[in-house]
Design goal:
By secondary structure, this protein is mainly alpha-helical. Helices cover about 55% and strands about 5% of the residues. It contains 6 helices and 2 strands, in the order H-H-H-E-H-H-H-E. A two-stranded antiparallel ribbon has the order 1-2. It starts with 20 loop residues before the first helix and ends with a strand.
């Protein structure tokens, strides 16, 4: 099966594609961060052995290990052909760029970084924006130019 390289990933125009997206996003968030926690454990073991091999220098990766694991998880899954993380797929949603382009690794990382920054400043109030903005987009979606839609 060949993947069409010229395929566009345009955001759907139908309002039903965005119905219930906020609730699905919250549950996808919980699933994704549970999976990241599971992936963090073997990464911590690898960093331990790396620290032993480098006579302690590798232990400096521990403070940023969660960010590395989460960045790779979101970057590789959102930039993949399905344009969604495993948690998003479980909840039946996917991410699209509003201009119709494919989400690349850098866009996925920027989306994640903006989410962390805005969530640390605005706390859960970030979800209130989705109630008032078209397509149930959040603030970091607006800044990066993405939208989340239902897959079915």
């Amino acid at each position: 099966m060949a993947i069409d390289q010229n395929q566009t990933y345009a955001a759907p125009d139908d309002w039903r594609a965005y119905s219930g997206v906020l609730t699905r996003r919250m549950f996808a968030f919980l699933i994704d961060y549970l999976l990241i926690a599971v992936l963090w454990v073997p990464a911590a073991v690898v960093v331990f052995f790396l620290g032993v091999l480098t006579l302690g220098l590798g232990f400096l990766l521990y403070p940023i290990l969660f960010f590395i694991v989460a960045g790779l998880y979101f970057g590789m899954s959102l930039a993949g052909p399905r344009q969604s993380t495993p948690g998003m797929r479980a909840m039946g949603i996917f991410m699209v760029k509003v201009d119709g382009g494919k989400i690349d690794f850098v866009t996925a990382i920027a989306h994640l970084a903006l989410f962390w920054i805005l969530n640390s400043v605005l706390t859960p109030l970030i979800l209130l924006a989705g109630l008032f903005i078209d397509r149930s987009r959040l603030v970091h979606d607006l800044l990066v130019g993405t939208a989340v839609a239902r897959a079915y």
